Write a sequence for this structure.
């Protein structure tokens, strides 16, 4: 896992074998990364993914072997991460990428072995308060939330499908949309909603494609085709056009 803070000043990488996150500053002219002091911070067991919230104040790391999320505050000057108190919050089995919704109010973590998504409220100090769990399809790996924070999408790797939900703006709870799922390619993994909120993209590892969808006003998705990629796409990104 790798994340860049919204200001574009800092980079964080999850180091699964070291149980750490490496921290870097970005040279604005060259893009060169320089380790912070200290250069890393401890996580839970086998960190897989790191995410920074939209405000750039907090970072969250999913720890796959101990079923937790590590929580940190970000020093806005140095980029250094400081664990919150408490330092972790529990999830389900083998958590994947934590997703912060664009409003900065909620965090969603897919629990790959439990076929659920844990959801949390972000407190003022960056700690997370559990709101409960939502049942998804089989093998959830990724959650994406649209720019309005009204709709959420969960990739179900073993079902070759995406679950579609509406978001409760007060609690963060997810309610299945109708229809509840839409098909993907084989063994989908990452999902992303484009910044305009018009399109959704899913990378399919087993057939080397990206599934393309249009996002409807009710939050449902309509298949719009596929694009061929290289072997085993595991990440998808969309550029943001400067005005």
């Amino acid at each position: 896992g790798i994340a860049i803070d919204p200001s574009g000043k800092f980079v964080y990488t999850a180091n699964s074998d070291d149980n750490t996150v490496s921290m870097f500053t970005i040279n604005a002219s060259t893009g060169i990364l320089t380790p912070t002091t200290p250069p890393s911070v401890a996580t839970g067991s086998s960190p897989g993914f790191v995410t920074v919230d939209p405000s750039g104040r907090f970072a969250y790391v999913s720890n796959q072997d101990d079923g937790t999320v590590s929580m940190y505050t970000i020093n806005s000057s140095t980029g250094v991460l400081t664990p919150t108190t408490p330092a972790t919050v529990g999830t389900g089995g083998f958590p994947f990428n934590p997703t912060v919704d664009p409003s900065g109010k909620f965090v969603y973590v897919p629990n790959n072995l439990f076929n659920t998504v844990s959801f949390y409220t972000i407190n003022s100090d960056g700690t997370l308060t559990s709101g409960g769990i939502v049942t998804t399809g089989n093998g959830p790996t990724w959650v994406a939330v649209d720019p309005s924070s009204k709709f959420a999408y969960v990739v179900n790797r073993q079902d070759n499908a995406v679950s579609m939900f509406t978001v409760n703006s007060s609690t963060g709870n997810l309610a299945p949309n109708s229809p509840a799922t839409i098909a993907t390619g084989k063994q989908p993994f990452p999902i992303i909603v484009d910044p305009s909120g018009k399109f959704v993209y899913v990378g399919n590892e087993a057939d080397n494609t990206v599934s393309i969808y249009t996002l409807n006003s009710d939050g449902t998705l309509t298949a719009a085709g596929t694009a061929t990629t290289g072997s085993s796409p595991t990440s998808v990104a969309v550029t943001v056009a400067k005005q």
About this structure: The chain has a mean pLDDT of 95. The first strand starts at residue 2 and ends at 4. DSSP finds no helices and 20 strands in the chain.
